[in-house]
Amino acid sequence: MLREQLGEEYFRQGIQQYLKTYGYRNATVDDFIRIMELVSDTDLDAFRNRWLKDKEFPFGEAKTSLVRESEDLRNFFGLQKELMTSSTDNESIIKRYWGNTKSDQLKSQIIKTYYKSLSDDFISEAIRSNNVRVRQAIALAVGQIPLDLKSEFEFLLEDASYITKEGDALQAMDKLPWRQGQLFEQDPRHHRLFQ
Fold first, then answer.
1. What is the largest CA-CA distance in the chain?
2. What phi, psi does 174 have (nearest 5°)?
3. Which of 58, 119, 137, 143 could form a disulfide with 108, with the two C-beta atoms 3.0–4.6 Å apart?
4. Rounded Cα–Cα distance for residues 28 and 194 (Å)
5. Of 149, 110, 154, 104, nearest to 130 (Cα)?
6. Residue 103 backbone phi and psi in degrees, to 5
């Protein structure tokens, strides 16, 4: 918001001056705004009131600004809108957005938000992907390990990411009790998950 109001050049100059003035020292938001005002020769009282003091957050304005700046957010909100308004089945819509992005962040958010809408085939393919963020999201999003995906979730226990292993190990504790001993042998840190 402030960058849009001041413009890129003044915003960068303000950041540089702020770091030069307050580097390695305590500073307040008012100190930051004051530097921005000095560098840009702009009165920021309206900005301060709108974004920092008003009791009601300008959500619509913030969302519009963020969507304008982020392709991932544009796609995610587009996906949400299409899922709510289209008669096409949800997974077909999700697959189209999934296939049209290279963003790990967007794919991870799709998993976190729509995990329950995804088929076992979709989840299985995502688990076998070479995408650590997607595997982490699956390990953390699963409520109950589907029996048809037991081997895929056991595969996650071998993942290079500790976040993935821990998320999956928590599910294994509840849903695959015979694996507890094997988990301890593989990584002693899992022991704390079963206490």
1. 68
2. -85, -40
3. 137
4. 44
5. 104
6. -75, 115
How far apart are the C-alpha atoms of 8 and 156, rounded to whole Å? 44
Each residue's pLDDT tens digit, 143-169: 777 778 777 777 666 666 666 656 655
Tens of pLDDT, residues 52-69: 999 999 999 999 989 998
pLDDT for residue 194 is more than 50 = no
Amino acid, res. 2: L
Per-residue confidence (pLDDT) for residue 106, from 0 to 100: 95
Tell me if 127 sits within 8 A of 156, measured CB to CB: yes
Residue type, 61: E
Answer whether 37's CB lies under 8 Å from 13's CB.
no
Calculate mean pLDDT across residues 175-184. Answer: 51
**CA–CA dist 138, 70 (Å, integer):** 24
Please, are residues 132 and 160 in contact by the beta-carbon 8 Å criterion?
A: yes
Neighbours of 125 (CB within 10 A): 15
pTM of the model: 0.66
Q: 120, 117, 181: which is closest to 148 by C-alpha?
A: 120
